[in-house]
Amino acid sequence: MGYRPAYNEIFDHVLLMGPLYHLLEAHERETAMCAALSRLKPGGTIAVSFIGSYSGMLYAMRALLKVILRAKEQEYFESLVQGQAFAGTGFTDVYFERHQRVLPFMGKFQLETLHFLSSESFFAPCSDRLYAQSEETYQAWLRFGIRLCELPDALPFTEHLLYIGRKPKEEHKCE
Description:
alpha/beta, Rossmann fold, six-stranded mixed sheet, 6 strands
């Protein structure tokens, strides 16, 4: 008889916020998903965060403009041009996922997709300026951003992507 976690299928909701953007190898990210799902009740919901591939560029444009001149950063910038995910050293060991690859990755786990959205909507590049506005102006932008956050063509303009899904009620085990 194999190892059975002490917390097997007891949670209604599971948050997986961080591991999928710090694990550089695909099999490690799949293992993390399986571990999270093993703790989720059938019919329960899981929220999974990803760092989008353009997040490093958005941050650099906002806070570290000269980073584009560094030779060691060129691998990251080239991954954007080539349309590839990036696994390597950024602010730490980091995996930046292409927004187009999130749903296929999550599809491996037979989850019902409830939402796939850009966590910051279009706000990531302008957040400092938005926070400095009057409450009325900020709230108007916030309402507008919420309306845009699940549009597929808005996904590249964020730093974090959020997937929310439901585990099937019928038994499904990770391979």
